[in-house]
Amino acid sequence: MMNSRTMLKLGVSALILGGVTVTGVATQGLSLSAFAASGANAKKAASEARQAQKAIAQRKGHNAVEHAELAVANDPNNAEYRALLGQAYLLAGRFASAGQALTDALTLDPKNGAVALNLALAKIGQGDWAGARTLLQAHAETIPVSDRGLALALAGDPVTAVEILTPAVRDASATAKTRQNLALSLALAGRWREATQMAAMDVPPDQLGARIMEWTNFARPTNAYDQVAALLGVRPIEDAGQPVALALSQQPNVAVAAAATAPAADPVDAYMPGATPAPVEQAAVEAPSEPQAEPQQVAGTGPQVVFGARDEIVQAVPAARVPAAVPVRVASATQPARTATAPRRASGNHYVQLGAYVNAAVARDAWARYTRRVSALNGTTPQGAQVSTRAGNFYRLSVGGFARTDADALCRQVKASGGNCFVRVAAGDTVASWVKPGSLQVASR
After folding, report:
1. Which residue of 65, 164, 274, 413 has the fewest C-beta atoms within 10 A of its own C-beta?
2. pTM, whole model, 2 decimals?
3. What is the CA radius of gyration of the chain?
4. Each residue of 299-357: pLDDT tens digit?
């Protein structure tokens, strides 16, 4: 794993998203006003939020989390407090928790570009590059171009990052931050000569060589979270997620006893954005009682960050869609069980491409996830092909050797299960390098 403190030497302008020079976490627009709670809860929430801000400024992630969780517990419908909690989780290296808190904050405040930017960072840190790119695109109007460009590069699309940052640096209002973000994006796209020339505009000559060397290491992460951790100067830890009691969907259950005599409110509408439920006097809520696992530093075994050209965007495997349970009719206690067989597919020259990854090892991990989630792939043999593009070298993952109609049908099944794919003709595909000769599966029958 990259050393976070070392990576901060990359330069403030290139590594700070959202305009905060203390933590690298976007915090614009957070006035910490208490508006959704009343009485003791509102005062307690505001006090805890101020303490959380101080802890973030001092880079005390654990303390910031404790105070921010209490702020949210006492004022659960306050989008600003949830955004603050997300920032605290990022500073503590808890990317899964940050993603949950920031998703809740964005639900309450859909137009907040700073929250969307931080949520994109949390997604990148968890390996959800496709989700991060989609989020950045959806909030393109509210996230500054300089920040959005570098975030896109970190999310696996440095080509688009360069395209949107190049006009930005030509603008009269361009700053060193914008130029350095473009330089780093060029580096991530493999355009090192241009990256060096751009970096030289703001980096002293005696420091330029060291800067480029640091970027070289930055461009070769071992784990999905490496670059975001280096960006924020944090150490990622094992994270089971934020306490369930703090989830936005759980808030109708907060202080049930205190609200027992109040008129019943709609369990959904009362906690949607813009809702103003009748105030209920409650005792100040203490920290969630859910036991928390002792933080442990993450070992360097996670998925790798992948960068691709626009026409070869790396496809991160999305979360599986869990199918509904189907009743199974038992014919007889003595009747032998039938063994499921793979569908028969006609042989041909068409392949279903499932993704393009930085190397075969990452493709193998993606294949394992696909086969767990897409039953239609059972009985097929993974194929691979090494390709070179302007953005670098990639390993294509596919299955094939099918007739066009069968390939189309399989791709539809992959998409129906939440995957990504497209059909093409053979292009140097061979049996994947990790498949043992003695365990070859029959791809076409």
Report:
1. 274
2. 0.55
3. 25
4. 443 443 444 433 444 444 444 444 444 444 444 444 444 444 456 788 888 999 887 77
